Backbone:
């Protein structure tokens, strides 16, 4: 209710302020027969902005500050009543909030939790009163300030444009903010994971079974967080994918740019674009439902036993997914080779394929290497295909017919469904995420460096 | 000497042909995989748009249905319709009396049969007390039997002899109908394949895309405008550009981790909602929009800029009154392509809990909901036979949306091209 009212204020106040500014700037009393320095529109915008921005700042500030006031107070009630240190406070706080919001039922909550819910409710009620007051005061002060400023020779346009420039700058900083929050989220949670499991055990351990005993007397769920099987699985699938995608993608690109007639090109280019546009779930479904059974049958016919979820199925389909990526990148690279090299070779009597193999490809090699690196980073980060087709068993194997699991597949399986916070199992997903982030970042950095270095050579 | 030369030339020509053949083979391989994929999806999915149902003569007895006048929607929603449906079914087969047989008989109908009666009554409350003929859905197994996906005999047969006889009798009497399944397109998810629909998932995806558009479109244009028009060549600019490139390359699961750790756990935004989904997707779409907008701003002829400046416009006015409108087609194309990519993204939505089973169709971005690609994932993981065709059909729907969006982008691009020329 309060929220809707405030939202109403948030829209109506700036609108009316804008109208007021605009009408006042047009009024004869205001103009006194002179030409205003800025047009009426800018006076209106100036007024509106001075209402919106203070309110927005208050709201944003509140979003950041509020948890620091309410959360400790609520959790303190919880701890003083139950004296319990079980469970992660962030998770308990979430539960309390959800009960208060009516999302979770009150029935099975403990008494301590209910006391905390009461405290939360009363605190958030008074907090919302304080917030509403602050919000309204900020809006009206802005309004008053802007109204005072309006005058015939007031440079409203310059002021508004200054704001616009700041807005543009802030918008472009969102990218930095996003990267920072990714790094922050990953590092903070991963550090908490490494408190339980030493970094080297994680990076060099040979056994992955993230189940952790809920009770101390449980059997067989000690929890092992050695990520080597995941790394091997990821690399195995990426390798299979590259074995498919690099030759097919490269030859497609060569054929399309050097040999194909325009009619072939008008069919083949959209075809590759469609392959690139198919969502990864669709590829995953295709791999699990069609390709995997085919592989089982085919390997049975030669006397081999393939698992129903195999690295080969996931890798092959992922390779198909990456074909258009490789072909479009290498197309760019091949076309960037100076035509003088091509003509020189042809003039010396080389056939077209000889020109391509002995002149164009060596010249384009760094660029192609960059493209392959980018494709590897795509393959490592790809999630849905492996979740659906590669399986979850953390086998340490190089046999493509067995089921393996990957870093991304583990992140998804660990975090989908019920999570117990602060358990090494949940946190391990963030450690895996951090590893994945660092690896893909490095690969992309290397690829860009290679491509850039190569581009400079011919410029 | 001449012989060897000719041999060499022949060898070289053969190599040339072989090389060419590799190219053709690669393209053919890619093309045939694509065709095979499309064939698999369409051939196993088209039947999900249809459903086998049974014509049932139902006696609408108010007492048995536990409803009393006035027959408002609320009253009718509280009613129990199991008994009338079962009685109608037993009346159809008067010779079936044993309890076990009757249970088998009742298993031929979907639990949705009761909903069909309820929905009929909500539309026609005046028919209470009368006898009506109503088409009610068959259970998933019999639906699949009708479509020929389940065998009548063999090791894995899911029907007993009696059920098959009853089914054949119904078919002879012309009581089995095969109709277009509107519930699939407009209904919510269900545990029962014959009742499951993608309406909820489509709405969830649309809401998520709306949020994504509202965030990423203005931010993307603003960022691109700053970088192209106002940024000086300094450290800050270089850092921003590096970050945009970096965002474009981060794997999508990582964005899911970001959403989980920051949007859900720090800011406490509601789980499983299109709002959070859209926020995460907007971060992934942002680089696409920024790159497309920058390219189209760069393509605006400098004459427009200088002319506007010459007429006394301020730099901000030049950008907002002239450059951005001229760059808009390219921006829109990039935005649509970015949104199409966002529509297919699955992994980040899984992380923020859009995988929960939700039968209701969301009416705001703040309602918990599924999304189209996630629904595909959920159904693909379901063990029941009936969900295989649903999965393929949902894929057909998402592909239809993607094709539509890309066509729109192509149309915008071609229209503006002809204008410039």
Residues:
């Amino acid at each position: 209710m309060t929220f809707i009212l405030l939202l109403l204020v948030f829209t109506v106040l700036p609108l009316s302020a804008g109208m007021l500014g605009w009408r006042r700037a047009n009024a004869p009393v205001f103009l006194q027969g002179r030409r205003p320095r800025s047009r009426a529109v800018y006076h209106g915008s100036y007024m509106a902005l001075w209402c919106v921005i203070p309110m927005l700042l208050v709201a944003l500030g509140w979003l950041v500050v509020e948890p620091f006031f309410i959360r400790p107070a609520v959790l303190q009630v919880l701890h003083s009543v139950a004296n319990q240190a079980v469970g992660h406070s962030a998770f308990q706080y979430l539960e309390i909030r959800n009960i208060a919001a009516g999302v979770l039922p009150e029935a099975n909550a403990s008494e301590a939790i209910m006391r905390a819910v009461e405290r939360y409710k009363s605190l958030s009620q008074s907090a919302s009163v304080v917030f509403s007051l602050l919000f309204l005061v900020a809006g009206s002060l802005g309004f008053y300030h802007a109204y005072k400023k309006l005058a015939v020779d007031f440079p409203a346009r310059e002021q508004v444009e200054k704001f616009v420039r700041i807005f543009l700058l802030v918008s472009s900083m969102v990218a930095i903010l996003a990267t920072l929050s990714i790094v922050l989220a990953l590092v903070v949670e991963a550090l908490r994971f490494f408190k339980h499991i030493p970094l080297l055990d994680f990076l060099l351990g040979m056994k992955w079974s993230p189940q952790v005993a809920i009770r101390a007397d449980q059997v067989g769920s000690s929890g092992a967080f050695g990520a080597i099987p995941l790394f091997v699985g990821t690399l195995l699938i990426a390798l299979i994918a590259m074995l498919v995608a690099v030759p097919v993608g490269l030859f497609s690109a060569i054929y399309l740019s050097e040999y194909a007639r325009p009619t072939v090109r008008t069919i083949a280019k959209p075809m590759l674009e469609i392959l690139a546009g198919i969502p990864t779930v669709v590829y995953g479904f295709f791999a699990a439902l069609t390709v995997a059974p085919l592989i089982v049958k085919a390997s049975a016919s030669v006397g081999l036993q393939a698992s129903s979820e195999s690295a080969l199925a996931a890798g092959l389909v992922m390779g198909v997914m990456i074909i258009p990526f490789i072909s479009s990148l290498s197309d760019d690279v091949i076309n960037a080779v100076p035509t003088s090299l091509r003509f020189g070779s042809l003039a010396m009597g080389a056939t077209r394929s000889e020109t391509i193999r002995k002149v164009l490809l060596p010249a384009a090699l760094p660029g192609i290497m960059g493209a392959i690196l980018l494709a590897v980073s795509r393959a490592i980060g790809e999630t849905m295909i492996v979740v659906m087709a590669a399986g979850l068993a953390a086998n340490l194997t190089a046999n493509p017919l067995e089921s393996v699991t990957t870093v991304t597949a583990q992140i998804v399986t660990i975090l989908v469904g019920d999570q117990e916070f602060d358990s090494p199992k949940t946190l391990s997903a963030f450690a895996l995420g951090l590893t994945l982030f660092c690896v893909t970042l490095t690969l992309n950095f290397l690829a860009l460096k290679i491509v850039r270095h190569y581009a400079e050579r011919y410029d | 000497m001449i012989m060897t030369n000719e041999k060499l030339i022949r060898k070289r020509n053969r190599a040339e042909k072989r090389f060419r053949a590799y190219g053709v083979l690669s393209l053919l391989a890619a093309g045939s995989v694509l065709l095979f994929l499309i064939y698999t999806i369409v051939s196993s999915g088209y039947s999900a748009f249809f459903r086998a149902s049974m014509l049932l003569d139902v006696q609408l007895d108010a007492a048995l249905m536990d409803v009393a006048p006035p027959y408002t929607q609320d009253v009718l929603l509280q009613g129990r319709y199991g008994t009338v449906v079962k009685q109608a079914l037993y009346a159809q087969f008067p010779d079936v009396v044993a309890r076990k047989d009757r249970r088998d008989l009742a298993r031929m109908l979907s639990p949705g049969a009761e909903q069909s009666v309820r929905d009929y009554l909500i539309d026609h409350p005046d028919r209470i007390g009368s006898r009506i003929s109503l088409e009610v859905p068959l259970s998933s197994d019999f639906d699949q039997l009708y479509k020929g996906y389940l065998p009548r005999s063999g090791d894995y047969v899911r029907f007993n002899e009696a059920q098959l006889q009853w089914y054949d009798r119904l078919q002879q009497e012309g009581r089995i109908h095969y109709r277009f399944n509107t519930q699939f397109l407009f209904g919510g998810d269900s545990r029962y394949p014959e009742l499951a629909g993608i309406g909820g998932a489509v709405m969830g995806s649309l809401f998520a895309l709306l949020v994504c558009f509202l965030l990423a479109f203005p931010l993307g244009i603003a960022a691109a405008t700053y970088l192209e028009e106002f940024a000086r060549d300094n450290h800050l600019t270089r850092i921003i550009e590096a970050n945009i490139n970096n965002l474009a390359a981060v794997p999508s699961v990582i964005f899911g981790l970001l959403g989980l750790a920051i949007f859900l756990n720090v800011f406490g935004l509601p789980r499983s909602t299109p709002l959070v989904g859209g926020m995460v997707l907007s971060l992934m779409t942002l680089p696409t929009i920024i790159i497309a907008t920058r390219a189209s701003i760069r393509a605006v002829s400098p004459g427009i800029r200088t002319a506007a400046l010459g007429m006394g416009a301020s730099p901000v006015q030049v950008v907002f009154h002239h450059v951005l409108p001229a760059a808009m087609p390219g921006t829109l194309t990039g935005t649509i392509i970015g949104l199409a990519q966002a529509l297919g993204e699955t992994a980040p939505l899984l992380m923020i809990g859009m995988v929960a089973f939700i039968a209701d169709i969301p009416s705001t971005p703040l309602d918990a909901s599924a999304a189209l690609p996630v629904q595909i994932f959920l159904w693909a993981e379901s063990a029941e036979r009936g969900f295989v065709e649903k999965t393929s059909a949902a894929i057909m729907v998402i592909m239809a949306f993607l094709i539509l969006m890309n066509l729109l982008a192509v149309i915008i691009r071609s229209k503006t091209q002809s204008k410039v020329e």
Summary: The two ends of chain B are 59 Å apart (CA to CA). Chain B touches chain A through 88 residues (CB under 8 Å).
